What we know:
The chain is mainly α. The chain has helices spanning 30-48, 54-74, 94-108, 124-147, 154-174; strands at residues 16-18, 24-26, 118-119, 182-183. Its EC number is 2.5.1.17.
Amino acid sequence: MVVLNKIYTKTGDAGETALGNGARVAKHSMRVTAYGTVDEANSTVGMARLHTQGDLDDRLAAIQNDLFDLGADLCRPDMEKDAVSEYPPLRVSDAQVTRLETEIDVMNDKLEPLRSFILPGGSALAAHLHLCRTVSRRAERLSVELATMEAINPAAVKYLNRLSDWFFVAARIANNDGKDDVLWVPGANR
Length: 190
């Protein structure tokens, strides 16, 4: 269990922060940028949840927990040392990716095939889910960039890739099962 008695520590005042393994890095490092964007995505999910209830809210709560797992994963480098660590770091698993895929398939079965691109919007919930999608996609791009510099858990990138797809399909569900989607009309305002 984590205990946070004091919120400010002053240890970051010089522009550095501690990773999960205790190493100090610049706050603008790619690793911090990647897991910081995952945290941002989690905040957008919290905003979306203001408009949900029932099963969708439960699934979004699970995603929020997964995103905290993902942040913990990304803030802990040293992939090769995991097997020998007394306390192995938390890593996102392929099972979490598979769960998203299953949920996407179930939601998508309710929808008519798309014949146009969709503009973010429609209902308030759909608009929030589209914001979740775009922030998750940015977190994915940053994690992919991090992976070109340092080893990261491949399941982390897969999770983010599926997550943005999950949000896209969930936004369609939130728009009356796609009936109220806002469709792109190419060149409509020329």
